[in-house]
Specification:
Elements: E1 8-14, H1 21-40, E2 47-53, H2 56-68, E3 72-79, H3 89-94, E4 99-103, H4 117-122, H5 125-138, E5 144-147, H6 153-174, E6 176-180, H7 194-201, E7 205-208, H8 211-218, H9 222-235, H10 240-243, H11 246-269, E8 271-275, H12 290-297, E9 301-303, H13 308-320, E10 328-337, E11 344-348, E12 363-366, E13 378-381, E14 387-396, E15 401-410, E16 424-429, H14 433-443, E17 448-452, H15 457-467, E18 470-474, H16 480-491
Helix pairs in contact: 6-13, 6-15, 8-11, 9-11, 11-12, 14-16
This protein binds manganese (II) ion.
Manganese (II) ion (MN) binds at residues 304-305, 332, 349, 448.
């Protein structure tokens, strides 16, 4: 079964009637062969449905069919033969789905000894796809162009990355973002225009009172709590110090009850992402910590302090990363290690880091929270795994959204931090601490991010293109000076 079994992609293969029915039959058969190869490929996360088109009417009908299908997350086009592009104008004009132009050819090799004009006419993607690309550019259509033989791993991988981004975008239009309370007071970067956000990303962001959770919390039954507690014991380590301390164990049970209440509310509202804030907890015993962490592990997006943009981004990144190794979390840049040549960022949050990024089995601990004025919250404490990761953030510039991505290298903790009672990740930003942070700050990047070992820069680039937003990618040393120049130029607009 495919990772995204409720989504599909349409492969619209262009040709024309000029060459006669025999050629069109061959094109049809080749399109089916390519689709079957993609559909059997383990890295392809969704099914591809092929269709061959020969006229403006058929092209418009193919686009209409794809656009009317809520399961269709995107359209891949490829010209097997020449397919005059004025035939495509109507279809393109009506299209609202993400586009990928696959520039491939059915035959890998030129058949040196047997090649004749029939072969040339059948296999002229080199020619037909240029005509196709011209029209897409002429009409100002954003699309990903993937070049190479369709069986090459790199081609499959680039299409798969785009599919993951396209499904994340499709998911963003149907899974709501619910906000429990407003943004943290006086904070700027977590604010934004929710109308613009829905127009751009499809995110339906709506606010609710925390009473929605408090009310559901009161009606959670003891047996439901025991069931969730059992799941905690399977997933996490519960140290004897907590298990044998009735007060602390009760705090864990309260988090289980909060999780049940939150999960019920998310189901009732059709939400895929949510926010909380420590400034609005009336009726709750603690700030949801362990509860939020366990919900994130199940694929929900989350943003703390009312940060709905990051909540939606984390949901999108978790969708992109589905079934991949690595893990994805809400993250905050917290504090630095500024030793020359070994500068590091320590990422963490008050509580809410997703256990999917843990290097070892997370421990449940109960500690006081210095803000919020509630009971000591239970939370998962762990070190994040080492390895290549990305940190991504979306900011609202007033008239545009900007995605900022930094590639980072997470490293093992050089020393234990026995007095730090939260989950933490330690990383070196790329290409260097100085350049990465200079560019991140200059770009206006937030302190909250989506942090992932599975999501790639390519997926995020595809996502930004699909949403039609600005993007800044930090990680390539060669591009640093250019990027600084570009960002400084943007400041003067
Ligand atoms: Mn925060």
């Amino acid at each position: 079964m495919k990772t995204f079994d409720t989504y599909c992609f349409h492969l619209i293969v262009g040709t024309q009637t000029l060459y006669g029915p025999a050629v069109i039959e061959q094109v049809r058969s080749h399109a089916a062969t390519i689709a079957a190869f993609f559909n059997e490929h383990p890295r392809m996360p969704a099914t591809v449905l092929p269709e061959v088109v020969t006229s403006p009417e058929e092209i418009a009908a193919a686009f209409r069919k794809a656009n009317a299908d809520p399961a269709c997350a995107g359209i891949i086009t490829w010209m097997h033969t020449f397919s005059p592009s004025k035939m495509w104008i109507r279809g393109f004009a009506e299209n609202t789905k993400p586009l990928l132009h696959l520039h491939t050819q059915f035959n890998r090799d030129i058949p040196w000894s047997s090649i004749d004009m029939d072969f040339m006419n059948l296999n002229q993607s080199a020619h037909g796809d240029r005509e196709h690309g011209f029209m897409q550019t002429r009409m100002g259509l954003a699309r990903k162009v993937v070049v190479g033989f369709w069986q090459d791993e790199e081609v499959v991988s680039r299409i798969a990355a785009w599919m993951r981004a396209a499904v994340a975008y499709a998911d963003g239009m149907v899974s709501r973002v619910v906000r429990l309370g407003d943004n943290m007071r006086e904070v700027a970067v977590t604010e934004g225009n929710k109308v613009s956000a829905q127009m751009t990303f499809g995110w339906q962001v709506n606010g609710y009172g925390i009473a929605e959770i408090a009310q559901r919390y009161r009606y959670v039954s003891p047996s439901e709590i025991e069931e969730v507690l059992q799941q905690y014991l399977e997933r996490y380590e519960l140290p004897a110090a907590v298990r044998n301390n009735p007060t602390q164990l009760n705090r864990v049970r309260e988090q289980a009850a909060l999780e049940i209440a939150l999960r019920r509310f998310l189901a009732d509202t059709g939400a895929g992402a949510f926010t909380t804030t420590f400034e609005d907890l009336a009726g709750l015993p603690q700030l949801p910590g362990l509860a939020v962490q366990n919900l994130m592990a199940d694929g929900y997006g989350f943003g703390a302090e009312g940060d709905w943009k990051t909540a939606a981004l984390v949901r999108a990144m978790k969708t992109m990363a589905r079934d991949m190794a690595g893990g994805t979390s809400f993250m905050e840049d917290y504090t630095y290690h500024l030793e020359a040549g070994n500068e590091l960022v320590l990422g963490a949050h008050m509580l809410e880091i997703c256990p999917s990024i843990a290097a070892e089995k997370p421990r449940i601990e109960v500690h006081p929270l210095s803000i919020g004025g509630k009971d000591d919250p239970a939370r998962l404490v762990f070190d994040a795994r080492p390895g290549r990761a990305v940190a991504a953030t979306i900011i609202d510039l007033g008239d545009a959204f900007r995605l900022i991505v930094n590639e980072v290298e997470a490293v093992p903790l050089p020393h234990a931090m026995p007095r730090l009672p939260v989950a933490r990740a330690l990383w070196k930003p790329l290409p260097s601490f100085r350049d990465a942070l200079e560019l991140w700050i200059l770009a206006g990047g937030a302190h909250h991010s989506g942090y992932s070992y599975a999501v790639t820069t390519e997926m995020l680039e595809d996502y930004a293109r699909i949403a039609g937003i600005e993007s800044v990618f930090i990680g390539n040393a060669a591009e640093t000076a250019l990027l600084r120049h570009e960002l400084e130029h943007k400041l003067r607009r």
